[in-house]
Amino acid sequence: MTTSIFTACQPRQDILDGTISEADFAARLGSVISGVGSPDYVDPARFFSNTHPTAGLRTLIGEVMRRLSGKGDGSATFRLDTSFGGGKTHGLIALVHAARWGSAHGNELRSFVGDDALDAVDASVAAFDGEAADPTNGRLMGDGIRAFTPWGEIAYQLGGPEGYETVRKSDEARRAPGSSTLGEVLGDGPCLILLDELGEYLRKCPDALGRDQLAAFLKALFTAVEGRGNAAVVFTLAVRHDGKATDAFARENEEIARIIGELESVSGRKATILNPTSDDETAAVLRTRLFERVEVPGVTVDAYATLWNDNRDRIDAGHQGADARDAIETSYPFHPDLLDTLTGKTSTLADFQRVRGMLRILAKTVAKVWADRPDDDGLIHTHHIDLGDEGIRREFTTRLNQLQYDSAILNDIDGKSGRPALAATIDEEKFSGLLPYTSYIARTVFVHTLAFNNDLRGLTPAHLRYSILSPQADLSFVAAAETAFIQGSAYLDDRPTAPLRFNAEANLTQIIAREERGVEADALRTELDSRIKDIFTTNSGSFETISFPAGAFDVPDDVGDGKPRLVLVHHQALDIGNNVEEVPDLIAAIYQRKGQDGVGLRQLRNNLVFLAADERNIKRMTDAISRHLALQELRRPDRIGELAEHQQSQVVELARRSEADIAVAIQQCYRHLFYPSRTALGGGPVTLDLATIDQTSASERPGSGQTQIVRQLSDIGKLKKPEDQSDQPSYIRDRTPLKRSGQITSADLRAEFRRDPALPMHVGDDPFRKLVLKGIADGVFVYRRETMVAGQGDPAPSIVIDDASMVFTSEYARDHGIFPRPTPTSSGGDDNTSSGGSKPDEHGEGTMEIAGEEKKQTAGTGTATSTGGGSSSSASDGETFMGEGVLKDALTTVFQKARSAKVGTVSRLSITPFEISHFYMLLAVVESIPGATRRATASIEFETADASIITMTIEGTVGDAKLTREYVEPQLRAATERNVSTAIELTFADGLTLDGDEPEKIIERLTKFGTAAAFVEVTAEG
């Protein structure tokens, strides 16, 4: 157990209200000198009450005050040599108040210095702030006076217009005065000179003269101060111990450090180096400024220390035992990792001022934590830095100049309203009602990412667990969230050896993968179906394509445009595995039957080939479509701008390539070809065999799907194209009615190639014409049209395919005196008839008409207009979802739509079969569906051969409906006219849940023993 920070701590009201201003964080020395600025800095009492008396600050005030009182026996020069933003300006302000108002604020000062240092009160104070200086135009001091140099400003501040007159000429000439002149300016009383931001002033000086004069001024000032026992100079210098600077004025600060070093070397006097705030006092400084009250609860310290010890094999705490307790007590109410990260990593960024920057970030974080009241409230952790808060995010992105991480924050960590980031999405899906573990992970990794040195960027998984672990957090959930976030993140560094850290540029693969997961099932199905149709359908192709038939009624049994028909079987209706021992029921039914009721026998069986999907490649095909849709989404103008410039070009290129990828994936999936053959697959009764197109061939010419089919059928001799060699006329003669009758019309002979599975399929009529011509040339056929007869040796005739043109066997033609022609006898005079026979007539190609041709009837009933159609975009109680087609496909579709609409359970499943045989087949299997009440209805009307009209109605149990089969089916087969509608309804009293695999089990039961086509409805539970 822990004591809540909300009980143990009370933030300052301005922190909670958010009324603390930028000026409250950014202390300005000049504002304090002039008495104009934030009361927190200008008012001595408020300043000291908000300031933690660090050891360094106490030493600084004590040393300087003793010097001003004449009791100091050390150096008169003090150097605040701290890291940038390490409290130096705060220390200077403390000196101003102590020197000016020590007598009036002795009580406040006693927390910082002893009584012996309070004697020097009401000292004169002058401060020079290089940030506010203007060496070119002069800074307005008052009384119409503009000062151009540090000596000019100091002289005016100490002596007003009269004091300025002492150095006017030196100021206007930008030449440093001597030490005696400066001594006059300092006067005889206690005097404190403060110099801040000299590096920035040096940057503003127009030439080397300014630098030289600054060096001369510092030498004269140090000399003048050393000559007085009650005067002191305090200056700041932002350089490291090695003399190197890292801030924006690094070159100038290093130059000043060199000047100071030379002065100390010449004079033999060293400035006293002081640090107002050391790293180990940072937490105390932050507590004092941010909180009115902080009580460190022992139970919290014990709880965390125990957690770290118990999980020491799983976390990288860096603190154990007594050290752990010390670390928690020192940093409280902040988690040690939070302060360690800000001081050890964030502070290495050039734009981060340590104390000020931490105050800004933590002030906003404390306010957010107190507003949100998270459940893990023992400490303020790194993960409580909520990057979803605009103010907090800007502290990192804008103020620290890390705008390159904006996309990472919005995409992975904390998104905008309406577009939740990855972390929030995972939390909603996996950790609803728990701590937002994934968001905690994302925030922690982000804060650890921001560092100047690459080896500081990021953290290990063990350190991550240490940072997040609390009495309320479960490490197993942390690990699960970590895994999910790594898998889905678009911006984590995914190099194998990299720590957990973000990159400014996204991992494009992950961006696409995440977009793929957002593709809706309906959109994917629609796009995929369209692509499959486009790839295998072409006006210039060898086949007329019939896409996704639900049954025999969708495939006409006529000549059509003269091309063979390619029947595309939908992959959800049928897929082919490794071992195919017999022709699938759906294909067999279409191949053998025709008509709306599926009763009639198909005549033109050799006019159909079937293409089915490979079950192993369906996922790859759907993945290709999903990726394409994701890329198209990313290409939208409002989305592509979120990516880096080089990624934008990659998305465009990947989207272009995805077109070919889709075609290849579809062609490699749709590669099982069932074709008419006298060698039936598996020795069964259905005269279809199977050819599987190899992967390499399937990949050729992406987008031209019929090419692979034509090649495969041509290679096995099943398909004849116009450019191919002719069939053997003798084989065709012996395989067709010509062998028996000796004669046949050209139309009927052409029709044999559409009927007989043992014959090749012809692409158009040219292969047939080539066959007849070869038969004539070889002496196998004789061709006659009206009075024109052509046999062996005659000029090649123009073959017309119609009922008026005849093809004879050569034997029949000879026996019946058709060919060779009888030799004419002469009765005197010239004979005008040539012995070579008459010249054949020239005729255009005819067209073939087949009597009794049936037109395709529209399958199904109800309001759905296409397979899978009729659904609505969102579910409500009692809403119905509809689909039609092959039963397996239709059932899959409606359950998929119901799930997409967030339906949990359905109360009703209705199946309306398109054929009476399917109705009775389903009656035999629906009884195996558990938990359902089953009802069957049918309306049957037919006309007998004797013109009697018989009407019957079925409405009742499935068992009773099954009893009618033996009477109904023979009657319908013999009927001259029929009109039938049937339906089976399953009602689930307790509801059929869609969360598990129950729908798939129902689909398996209903389609296990045969293939049906039907209209399907499911109704959401109301």
Automatic annotation (TrEMBL):
* Ranges of biased composition (kind: Low complexity): 825-838, 858-876
InterPro entries in the record:
DUF499
Q: Name one Pfam family in it.
A: DUF499
Q: Where is the composition biased (Basic and acidic residues)?
A: 839-857
Annotated stretches, region: Disordered: 715-739, 815-880
Protein name per the record: DUF499 domain-containing protein
Lineage of producing organism: Bacteria, Pseudomonadati, Pseudomonadota, Alphaproteobacteria, Sphingomonadales
